[in-house]
Amino acid sequence: MRGATHARRAACAAAAALVATACGGGDSGGVGGAVLSSSWGDPQNPLEPANTNEVQGGKVLDMIFRGLKRYDPETGEAEDMLAEKIETSDSRNFTITVKDGWTFSNGEAVTAKSFVDAWNYGASLKNNQKNAYFFGYIEGYDKVHPEDGGKQSADTLSGLKVTGDRTFTVRLAQKFSSFPDTLGYNAFAPLPRAFFDDHDAWVRKPIGNGPYTVESYTKGSQMSLRAWDTYPGEDKARNGGVDLKVYTDNNTAYTDLMAGNLDLADDIPASQLRNVRSDLGDRYISNPAGIIQTLAFPFYDKAWNKPGMEKVRTGLSRAINREQITDTIFQKTRTPATDWTSPVLGEDGGYKAGLCGDACAYDPAAARKLIEEGGGLPGGQLKITYNADTGSHREWVDAVCNSINNALGQDRACVGNPIGTFADFRNRMSDEKMPGPFRAGWQMDYPLIQNFVQPLYYTGASSNDGKWTNKEFDRLVDEANAETDRVAAVQKFQQAEEVLRDNMGAIPLWYQNGSAGYSERLSDVKLNPFSVPVYAQIKVS
After folding, report:
1. Environment class of residue 190 by beta-carbon count within 10 Å: exposed (0-12), middle (13-18) or buried (19+)?
2. pLDDT in tens, 38-78
3. What's the pTM value of the predicted model, to 2 decimals?
4. β-strands 414-419, 506-518: how paired?
5. Cβ atoms of 57 and 244 closer than 8 Å
């Protein structure tokens, strides 16, 4: 999931216009009791499951939807949720049985058709969903979502068939042994008929099947969610609801938390890391999360994609003093990255410390030599683009530029290029208008090495925002997906990472901890391995 920016601003004044809202979130809710308030940022797009691939929208989808699988909030392991069973004998053909008794919050039953219709909608080219790529494994995707401007020749995926009220089959275009473990990702959520019958009304007030329902949303101000009293799942909300308040500056969110005007801030700004433990004590959380920060490159710009530029990109990597930056800017809440995944995967899951080798080792002399051999910086200057609506990105981008400038012995070799909001930043990225490297944080969608590798760097992948392409890399990813042996699959993915390293398709910077601070009103506050608060478990006194 494209990454972990928390676009926010204080919204207490505007919140007064919303139903049952207090600035600190103290009103009573449904079956779970009182409502809590939490910092948030407006999502880039309406909350369609197949069109949300960034963190803020993903938070809401996690609250209002449940899919076939759910990732354990402690371990990240994919566990059956609405799936009664998922069967296969060849890792290509799957029979899925949906549990009985599940409904959407409007009373409609969740059936096999709820999933098949949602997946067909998400895959269809005419619906222009950002997560369409995740359905690319399913047979017939090339007909419903042709590449390179081709004409759509089918409305539904030939590999999906409803075989009963609670059963459907999936045929993939090739073997993909880990396919069931991907089905906890929000793109695969079911949708009610209301989504298709009155799409505009659904977008204004989404209807899902999770422990919360959307009560109201005012863009730029607040989204109010309330516990669904008759939610059929075992993970019922232990509070009355959550008011997600929009902040465009996480420093303001932190100030509101300290003033008692906010219950939960889940992105502690870098400027507060020196004093957060003394401010909050054990109400401060910092846990390793499945997040990596990288610098991506605009490979659609010939200046960054001509022969020899792999040396320049590698030289820039070697000019960045990751250890110093993570120690001083982030107070060791980040760890220098030495591969393109995350330590939360563990060695068996695909994390391999040191895979980047010398290419990620700080060495100013080697950096200067490589950049000179590669033809120098395009245009003579590096501009790192980032969204400026949080306090953290400016600080680390400035630190990275200082490190590069010191290594190259030039005061203005590298400068930051701030963009006002996350939404604008994402839009410029989608429109291929980046003037140079840009920040590219990645929060895992599901805890598989495949998710750190394929969506970001495979040709045409959904989150390959820099448009990097390499046939050898793609071949290794395809072979890894086809492996039924987990160990062999991981090894293939790591070989693909080595191709990424040798071409420096993106510069890995650091692995990130999830962080949060909360008020004395709350208890049982935890972050899952995705760094998202487990809202349903939180109790409010």
Report:
1. buried
2. 999 998 889 999 999 888 999 999 999 999 999 999 888 89
3. 0.80
4. unpaired
5. no
